[in-house]
Task: inverse folding
């Protein structure tokens, strides 16, 4: 919101501080300010689910009004926000376009085709149009009747009033404020505990590589929410975006149905940010080793998640996988998250190839699709979408200077949307390797880092430019282009770290090595 023309974060601004002052929300900016900004975001792919963009648009309106839109101004302004979807680059491009709208020479787009590509990449129906960055895409909690009962998860130590099939205990109130007051607040915090990988390594073959990861928070911004009438169908928490797979198995919908039937009234089920981190699924930690030998890569790994699948994108390379389950204390995990398991195996395969010094162009053989996208690494999604990646590093500073991506997801449908998802996936991959992780108590499994700033997500000023080349496929549109990009960029980043460090780090995030300096501070 704007307070006397200055941008302020509404959720941390006490009402007492704005008494007698002018307060303007996005709706109060008026069409002459809203629409050019929103149209620029649509044109560049600067908004995907649209949950974060209303606040960003208000802040940008303040910058434009004060003529403070230099790159340094924008970096400082965006530091107060998080857009997990886009990787920031398309947002800065939207600002450039809004500043000079006459330079947009793009052909008219088919926004229905754009929405279809967004659905293929995001995993749920998604709108593409001016209403999306304006926050009017219809999130689940926006559609709930205001007279519904509200259920919030019970914090540790408070009394439960109902328990759903997933085992989550709920506290119920007439309003959200009432329910949260009765439940007690789970305090957001950032721990000083290291995000240590919890699993021991399998035996490391001679000449091989090994990798251990910890739990990683998917970091989607819209907290899980649903509502349901008695005997009704719950509102989906995936109303305009797939949350990178993090809400695929969300308990809020089933819980809303159970509680509505039990209480005979419409019930809203609502997670706070801290609830998402405590109860939402994480990327499963792994410990694994890989070695390239005699035309194949052999991987041995262990994880609390299900055994991942992997198909080699190289005609001349077989991959043998031995994977074991491990029971360890910790938060829920899900293989529905972006390329979970498959990306880890891609990283290990590409790392083993890199360590062995094999020529990837010889491994590809006659596969035209793989050859078309091959850069320094190669990845294939479960759908068959393919991507290659190259991560450039400045020889003097050791900082990542740029990321190059090629992606083939069949018929692109809409290059703007596919490019936006590819850049967002590159952003997520870079953070996964270099900076992202959460601390978990090794004995109780309790998540210790509960704030967005504690996740290690790459900030706007630290994100290098991403160049995306879309390679049109011969077949129909397939999902998962951004999944393939995520895996390819993660593998390319790990290999780049190995070249710069002179030794390959054996854990993600690689924050305890000099690799932490690879992100611009």
Result:
């Amino acid at each position: 919101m704007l307070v006397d023309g200055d941008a302020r974060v509404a959720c941390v601004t006490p009402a007492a501080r704005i008494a007698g002052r002018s307060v303007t929300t996005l709706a109060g900016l008026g069409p002459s300010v809203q629409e050019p900004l929103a149209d620029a975001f649509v044109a560049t792919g600067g908004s995907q689910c649209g949950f974060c963009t209303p606040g960003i648009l208000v802040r940008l309106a303040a910058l434009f009004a004060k003529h403070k839109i230099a790159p340094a101004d924008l970096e400082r302004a965006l530091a107060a926000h998080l857009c997990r979807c886009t990787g920031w680059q398309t947002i800065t491009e939207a600002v450039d376009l809004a500043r000079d709208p006459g330079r947009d020479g793009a052909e008219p787009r088919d926004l229905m085709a754009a929405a279809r590509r967004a659905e293929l990449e995001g995993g749920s129906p998604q709108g593409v149009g001016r209403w999306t960055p304006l926050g009017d895409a219809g999130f689940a909690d926006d559609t709930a009747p205001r007279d519904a009962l509200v259920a919030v998860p019970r914090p540790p130590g408070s009394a439960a009033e109902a328990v759903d099939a997933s085992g989550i205990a709920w506290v119920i109130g007439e309003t959200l404020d009432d329910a949260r007051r009765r439940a007690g607040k789970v305090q957001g915090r950032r721990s000083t505990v290291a995000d240590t990988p919890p699993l021991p390594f399998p035996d490391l073959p001679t000449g091989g590589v090994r990798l251990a990861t910890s739990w990683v928070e998917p970091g989607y911004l819209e907290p899980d929410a649903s509502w349901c009438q008695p005997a009704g169908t719950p509102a989906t928490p995936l109303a305009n975006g797939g949350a990178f797979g993090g809400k695929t198995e969300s308990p809020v919908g089933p819980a809303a149905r159970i509680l509505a039937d039990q209480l005979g009234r419409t019930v809203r089920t609502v997670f706070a940010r801290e609830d998402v981190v405590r109860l939402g699924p994480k990327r499963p930690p792994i410990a694994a080793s890989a070695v390239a030998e005699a035309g194949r890569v052999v991987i041995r790994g262990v994880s609390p998640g299900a055994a991942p699948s992997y198909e080699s994108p190289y005609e001349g390379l077989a991959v043998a996988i031995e994977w074991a389950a491990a029971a360890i204390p910790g938060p829920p995990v899900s293989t529905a998250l972006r390329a979970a398991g498959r990306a880890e195996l891609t990283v290990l395969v590409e790392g083993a190839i890199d360590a062995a010094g094999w020529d990837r162009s010889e491994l590809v053989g006659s596969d035209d699709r793989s050859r078309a996208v091959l850069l320094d690494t190669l990845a294939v999604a479960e759908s068959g979408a393919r991507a290659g990646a190259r991560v450039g590093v400045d020889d003097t500073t050791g900082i990542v200077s740029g990321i190059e991506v090629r992606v083939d997801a069949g018929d692109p449908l809409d290059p703007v949307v596919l490019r936006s998802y590819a850049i967002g996936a590159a952003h997520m991959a870079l953070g996964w390797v270099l900076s992202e992780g959460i601390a978990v108590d090794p004995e109780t499994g309790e998540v210790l880092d509960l704030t967005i700033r504690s996740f290690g997500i790459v900030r706007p000023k630290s994100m290098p430019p991403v160049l995306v080349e879309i390679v049109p496929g011969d077949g129909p549109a397939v999902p998962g282009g951004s999944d393939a990009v995520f895996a390819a960029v993660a593998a390319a980043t790990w290999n780049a770290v190995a070249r710069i460090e002179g030794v390959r780090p054996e854990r993600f995030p690689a924050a305890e090595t000099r690799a932490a300096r690879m992100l611009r501070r």
DSSP finds 14 helices and 17 strands in the chain. Residues 481-501 form the longest helix (21 residues).
